[in-house]
Amino acid sequence: MKIIHVCVIEFTAKHLLLPQCEYMRSLGHEIGFVFSPAPGAEELRQRGFFVKEIKISRKITPFDVVSIFKLAMYFRQVRPDIVHTHTSKGGVIGRIAAYLARVPYIVHTIHGFPFAEGQARAKYAFYAGIEKWVGRITDVLLSQSKEDVDTAIRLGILARRGAPIYIGNGIDVTKFNRARFTSVRKAEIRKSLGIKDEPIITIIARLTLEKGYAELIEALKSCVNLPWTALFVGPDDGAKSIIEDMVAQYGLIGRVRMLGQRDDVDELLTITDVFVLPSYREGMPRSVIEAQAMGVPAIVTDIRGCREIVINGQTGIIVPPRNSLELGEALSRLLQDPQLRERLGRAAEHYARTRFSETSVFERIAAVYKELEMDCHRKGKRA
Description:
By secondary structure, the protein is an alpha/beta fold.
């Protein structure tokens, strides 16, 4: 079938969806992408995918009407069998456009609902109401998080075919394998970054405050008397200057490396001693799975998704969100106890590699596509 994936930014297509789409293409499906204009579009075209660049804002704006119109016109032109949308904003815009264009099947993957515990009641209700409404024009909902499935059922966020189907999240466990890296290679990676023998703390997340960067910087300040270097890895999402100012304000410029978006995450993780993701809201964060598969213990916040990946005290440490004090205490504990890091890391590696293989996720999605394909033939709905 002809399947078009809709997301807001090229990063989602290239770094999160590409392995899944290559797998689906190997099964005979024709795969395309729609996202906002970006340099990475040409690379995807060279890989054999058809790509359409249409501006989709990450925020709610009047321009959304234009995005929906352009998307609907494009869908009418290329006549896909399935439009598969991703992330909250891409999901709303893409599904409305697909519905208006009368695309035979609309599928949406929940990468984490836009509403979360701790939000203002009005904001929570607003976003939940939108998700409930667009669910009614969706044929199939897929969820990376078991907790989001329960939440959707409780709030009545259902697709035409019922409650969200749990697919989980997964990674390439052959790539994220610390056995691939020799001690010599690790030394070379450290040298390239100008890092000596001190422990390395890594966060891989968009540079936005909802990822917990402010709390992390405060926690790092509390550990300033311990040896460490921190790597901040991720593209700017509007808060880079704020984060840089905080780093400077707390006197951490020489100890925090702002690396931006990287394509060598596996290499960075192989030299990492402690992974941190103190987010306020997540779906099923792949970065945590990647870290654990590399044998790196993770400190995460007690939010959906993260608590499905990390077992507190066994594979990592879970702390309350927006709490720099407990985050700093957890960092201090791991930085000062190499044996604890090793024990948690070994358990994390085993847990991640046995439960979060991307192949299992691909197979679950392929089964959904197969069911829709069979329904397509039965009803003659093929575009």
